[in-house]
Write a structure and sequence with these properties.
The structure is a single chain. The protein is α+β, with helices and mostly antiparallel strands. The protein has a single domain, classed as Alpha-Beta Plaits. 36% of the residues lie in helices and 32% in strands. α1 runs antiparallel to α3. It starts with a strand and ends with a strand.
């Protein structure tokens, strides 16, 4: 099982638009082959920072999603909303 964490920092005036897009796309992301769940979390101290946490069967499933039209079109739309460079980590459970 692979956990993907992505940190996204948004311009204040783009937060509502991002949250709408996430809610629109969430079910489609979760229906992708190998995706177990997708969560959206918001930083308490800085409300412009969000994290997505997704759970995947393996790296191949994650990469297939990352190369899909769904990801490419969504990313193209939201990347204009960023106020800082996104950061991402792919992690395996070791405990």
């Amino acid at each position: 099982m692979l956990k993907r964490i992505v940190k996204l920092t948004f311009k204040a005036d783009k937060i509502d638009a991002f949250q709408e897009i996430f809610q629109e796309k969430r079910e489609r992301i979760e229906s992708r082959n190998g995706c177990r769940s997708v969560q959206l979390l918001r930083d308490i101290a800085n409300p412009n920072i969000f994290f997505t946490i997704s759970l995947w069967d393996n790296e191949e499933c994650l990469n297939a999603y990352r190369h899909s039209e769904l990801f490419q079109s969504t990313w193209a739309e939201i990347k204009t909303y960023f106020d800082d460079k996104p950061e991402a980590w792919s992690l395996n459970d070791v405990g």
